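Query form — protein Response regulator transcription factor

QUESTION: What is the three-dimensional structure of this chain?
INPUT:
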Amino acid sequence: MSSEGAQQDGNGGAEDGDRTVRVVLVDDHRMFRTGVQAEIGVTERTRVEVVGEAADVDQAITVITATRPEVVLLDVHLPGGGGAEVLRRSAAMMADPEHPVRFLALSVSDAAEDVIGVIRGGARGYVTKTITGTDLINAIFRVADGDAVFSPRLAGFVLDAFASTDAPPIDEDLDRLTQREREVLRMIARGYAYKEVAKQLFISVKTVESHVSAVLRKLQLSNRHELTRWAAARRLV
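ANSWER: The C-alpha cells for Response regulator transcription factor are given below.
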C-alpha cells in the first residue's frame, strides 16, 4: 500500500520515461478541475494526458465510457448520486481484464465513511485535495499500475474497516443530511470559520450559512457549539 509521498523523478513526472497515462477528471467545481488540469495536464512534463472532464454522475459515465481512460480522478460528492454511483455504474469497465478503468478518489473530505464507501465501491485509492501536484501525479501512475494509494492518515480507516466483519451502524440523524451538509458539518465542528469553509469547498459564505442552518434544523440543534458536541459524540471530527 502506497502513501501519497512515493518517489518520482526530478521533473515531477513518472519514473518510466515515455509512458503516458490517460486521465478523466470528475469534480463538480469547474475552478478545481481547471487547477488540477494546470497542475498535472502538461503532458510533455508530467506524462499525464487529461482526456475528459465531468461535473456530475451522468456526465462522468458518458465521458468515461467514451474515452476509456486508465485512471479517473473522482470526487466523492457529486450531483446525481455521488462518487459511489459513478463506481456502481462503472463496474463493468473496472472489471475489464484487458483495459480496466481504475479510480482514484480525490476529495476534500477525510471522513472515514467516505473513504470506506468508495473503496468498497471499487476505487483503488483515496487522497485529499491537500495533496501536492507532484504526489498526485505519482499516485495516478501507481493506481494505473494497479497499486492502492492512500493519504497516510486515511489508510488506517481502510485497514480498520476491512479488519472488522461488523457493518457500521446506521445513523438515522446523519442520514438526514446531504453529502454537502455533512462536509460543512465536519468543518464547522472542527472549528473552521465560515470563510474558511467557503474557500475549501469552493462555495460562497452565504451558501455555507444556508447549509449550517439546514444542518441545525434537521438535527434539532440550536448553535454551532451544540453541533460540535453532536459531531464529536459520533466521532465525525
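ADDITIONAL NOTE: Residues 177 and 215 are 7 Å apart (CA to CA).
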